[in-house]
Inverse folding.
């Protein structure tokens, strides 16, 4: 996936699941930044899921 | 790696620096400030919680919950307060029902499935969609009963945000770009497939969940914009139900800082 977000970022999402909770870590490309993110499972994470998987078309970036 | 089975663990984890950003009902950020005395600050909105009240099939009305057990994540935050308010609007005061702490939404649905004595809980998609399919009774939308509400959002420790503003701005940009992609009708099928995969639900459940999120009136806030009016009601609920601030909510500004969001959006537009 090519970088498609301003100034950064293809996003690496590491999803952890245990005991009903999700943990996510988002990392910028090339070690620029790592942010650990903690969430609950559910529809509200759609933006996070999509940040990892969206199609980086020319109009999308 | 850290896991958060419930909001208390999440609040404690954020305060302890085990992760930098939490996404959850923003009332948890208020609780961090007011109860745990942590300097948490909300930096991003999301939606109105998309919560509905669900009860066991044999319960026909909300007043029938008198004497029954209701299940919550934490007993004094967020969706538990929504539930208490709805019960109050239907004539039930604290003490008229038993509160059982079960955990996050997925765990509450599981509880409702396995323990028929658990009479009611708040659920949102995809768990609300599953609940309805499995016969739990939908008693109505939280926001229709209690008014506008700022549900999930993102919050951080203020000092971390001040030390890492560029990272936070880029994170918000990534989130909003992802959301825009997912909400673009041209990407609907792929977004639904993504939900089905990530949430481990059937395609029809993912589709219905997506359509609830995409509802322009009742779904996600555009670009995850923070709803200040809804947040005022979130504060009001805490004041009324928990007696916080002597029952009168303070001005909302101290709990959020939208400067990072504004910078992120300026960079996207």
């Amino acid at each position: 996936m090519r970088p498609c977000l301003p100034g950064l970022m293809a996003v690496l999402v590491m999803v952890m699941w245990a005991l009903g909770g999700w943990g996510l870590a988002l990392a910028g490309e090339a070690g620029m930044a790592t942010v650990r993110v903690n969430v609950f499972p559910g529809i509200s994470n759609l933006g996070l899921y999509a940040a990892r998987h969206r199609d980086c078309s020319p109009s999308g970036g | 790696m850290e896991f958060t089975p419930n909001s208390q663990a999440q609040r404690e984890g954020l305060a302890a620096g085990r992760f930098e950003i939490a996404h959850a009902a923003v009332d948890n950020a208020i609780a961090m400030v007011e109860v745990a005395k942590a300097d948490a600050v909300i930096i991003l909105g999301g939606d109105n919680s998309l919560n509905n009240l669900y009860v066991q099939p044999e319960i026909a009305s909300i007043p029938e919950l008198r004497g029954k057990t209701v299940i919550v994540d934490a007993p004094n935050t967020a969706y538990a307060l929504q539930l208490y308010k709805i019960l109050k609007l239907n004539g039930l005061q604290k003490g008229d029902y038993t509160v059982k702490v079960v955990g996050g939404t997925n765990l509450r649905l599981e509880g409702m499935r396995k323990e028929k004595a658990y009479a009611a809980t708040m659920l949102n998609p995809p768990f609300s969609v599953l609940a309805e399919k499995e016969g739990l009774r939908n008693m109505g939308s939280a926001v229709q009963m209690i008014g506008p509400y700022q549900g999930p959002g993102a919050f951080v420790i203020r000092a971390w945000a001040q030390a890492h503003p560029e990272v936070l701005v880029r994170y918000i940009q990534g989130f909003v770009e992802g959301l825009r992609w997912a909400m673009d009708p041209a990407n609907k099928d792929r977004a639904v497939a993504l939900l089905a995969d990530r949430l481990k639900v059937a395609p029809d459940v993912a589709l219905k969940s997506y359509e609830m999120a995409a509802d322009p009136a009742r779904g996600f806030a555009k670009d995850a914009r923070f709803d200040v009016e809804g947040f005022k009601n979130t504060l009001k609920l805490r004041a009324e139900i928990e007696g916080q601030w002597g029952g009168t909510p303070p001005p909302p500004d101290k709990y959020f800082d939208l400067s990072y969001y504004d910078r992120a959006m300026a960079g996207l537009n």
Summary: The beta strands of chain A are 12-18, 21-27, 34-39. The interface with chain B takes residues 4-9, 11, 15-23, 25-26, 28, 33, 35-55, 60-61 of chain A (CB under 8 Å). The longest strand of chain A covers residues 12-18.
